[in-house]
User: Fold this.
Amino acid sequence: MAEPPSTTPPPDPETADISDTEAAASAPAQARSDRSPWNWLLIVPIVVPLTTPLFNHDNPRLLGFPTFYWLQLAFIILGVTTTTVVYRMTGRGERR
Amino acid sequence: MSDHIVEIVVFTALFLLVSVMGFVAARWRAPQDLNHLDEWGLGGRNFGGWITWFLVGGDLYTAYTFVAVPALLFGAGAAGFFAVPYTIIVYPMVFLVLVRLWSVSHRHGFVTPADFVRARFGSPTLALLVAITGIAATMPYIALQLVGIEAVLKTMGVTGDSALARHAPIIVAFAILAAYTYQSGLRAPALIAFVKDTLIYIVILVAVIYLPAKLGGWNSIFDAAEAKFAASPAPNDGITLNVNNQLQYITLALGSAMALFLYPHSITGVLASRDRGVIKRNMSALPAYSLLLGLIALLGFMAIAAGVKPLPGAREGTVDSNTVVPLLFDQQFPAWFAGVAFAAVGIGALVPAAIMSIAAANLFTRNIYKEYLRKDATPAQEANVSKITSLVVKVGAVACIVFLDPQFSIDLQLIGGVIILQTLPAVALGLYTRWLHRGALVAGWVAGMGLGMWMLYQIPNAATGRAHFGGSAFPLSKFGFDTTMTIYVGLVAVALNVLVAVIATLILRSMNVAEGEDGTTREDYFADATTAAPTTPAGSTPAAPTTTT
Assistant:
C-alpha cells in the first residue's frame, strides 16, 4: 500500500498557476484536465478478467489451483500494476 | 453452549475493545466542533491514504460478503467466484471517475451523490429519486450485516428459542454500535476498521496456510469440490463455469462493479479522503482486499473438503448456508483462534453497518430534510438530524431481521444492486456530460426500475422453492431467445435506462422543454485540495442554494 515516496514532484506549471489564485482557474488557457494517453491502459484490467471463455479450465493447475482460480487471482496483480503505472505517469500533478 | 465458552469469551472481549474505541473515536483527530455534517458524516473530509484504505476496504468488503461468497462457492462452485473479477475490474473502472466526483464535491461541499445531481442538473426531483434509490438500496444491506453476525452467533450456540431470545445478542450489539456512531460519526468506523481488517487479514492468512495443510493440500480440496458437484443433480454447479452461466458470470461481475461506487456508503468513504492523490493511490491499494476476498471465497471449497454440514435455517427443512465458514473455523481451529475469527466477522459487520447508516442518514438530511422540510437548516441542525436518522435506520435494520425472515433482506439486497444501478446515468454519466436532459434521466430511471423489477419477479429459485425474486440470473429464454443462457438483470435494466434517457433527451430538446441550470463549472472537476477555495471547512451551507432555478 503506497504512500508514494516523499520526493517533491517536479513543478507542474498548470497546477502551480491555479493554486496561486482562484481567479486563474477561470482563465480558459489554464484549464486543467485528466486527459492522458496513459489512461487507455486502464481498459486492459477491465477487459481481461471478463474473457472467461479463454480460461474456464481446470488444467493446468498451479500449486493445486485450477487455471480458472489461479489466473483470476493473478489478474489482481494485473489490476494493481496498471493502476499504479497510470497513477505514476499521470498523477504527479495531484500531489501537493 | 458450554463447549463454546472460550470462543464466546474471546469474541466478547474483542467486541468490547472495539466498542470502547468507537466511543473514543470522537476525540481522534480532534475536530473543533463535531456538530457539523462534514465532521460527523465525513470525518472532517481529511483522511489520508492509510485511513482511507482501511475505511473503504472495511466498507466495501463486508462481513456478509465474507460469509456469503464462500457459501456461494460451497453451494454452486465457480459461479460464486464472480466476486473476484468484480472487485478487480471495479478499480480501473472508477479510477478516473471518482477523482472527478471528489473534486466537484470538494468545491461545492457535496456530502451525497444526490447533492451532486441536484447541482449538476438543477433538479431537486431527480436528486430526490437518487436519494430514495440510495436509501432503499442501503437499508437491506445494513440488515444483511446482521445476518453475518447471526451466522457466527448461531455457530457459537448463542441462540435461544423465542424470537426475542434468539436475537438478544444482536440487539445488544447494534445498540452499542448505534450509540457510538451517534457520538463519533464516521470517525468510529474509521478507527474500528483498523482492528477489523487486521483481524481478518490474520485469520485468513492463517486459514489459507493451516487449513490446506490439514485437509491434504489445495489439489485435494478442489478435487473434493469437483466430486461433490459431479454427484449433485443441479445443472449449473461445478468448479468451472458452463455454457449456461458463463454470460451471467461476466455480466454479474461487470454490473456489480458498475454499481459498487454508486452505493452511498462507498461514496461516503471516497468523499472523506483528503485529496485526489489519496483516491488514486487507493485504487491501486484496495485490490489487496480482493486477494483476501478470493482466498476467503475458497473457504467454501475447504468446507466441502472438511465435510461441513450447514446448520438448519430459519424455516423447517432449509439450511443456512451462511454458517459454513463459521462452522469450518469452529471445527478446524483451536477454540481461542475460532473466537478471534468470529470476532473478525462480527466486527467486520459493524464497520460497514456504521458507514451505511451514516450514508443513508446523510441522504435523508441533505436531500429530503433540508430540501423539502427545512430549507434554512443550519449545519448543526443538519448534523443532528443525521445523527438521529442513523439511529432510526439501525432500529429499522434490526426490526427487519427480528420480525421478518432474513431471506427477505437477502432478496431486498439483491434488488438493491439492480436499483442502485439505475442512478448510473445521473451520477456517473453526469460527471462527464450534461447532455442528458433532467426529464429524460427521470424517464430512464423509471424505465430501468420497471424492467429490473419485472425481470427479478420472473426469476424462480429452485433451492428455496420460491417462484419470484429468486436470484439475479435472468434466463434469456424469457425474452424469446432459444437458449439456456442467463444474464444479470441489473445490466439489462441499466442498458434500457440509458437508451430511454438518450431518446427522451432528443424528444425533450426538440420540444424545447426547459433544462435546469448547471451549478458546476468545468474546472470544478479537476480541483484538488490545494487548488480549491476552502468553501467547505468553515461550513457555510454550500452550493445548493445558488443553483435554484
Summary: Chain B touches chain A through 57 residues (CB under 8 Å). The first helix of chain B runs from residue 5 to 24. The radius of gyration of chain B is 23 Å.
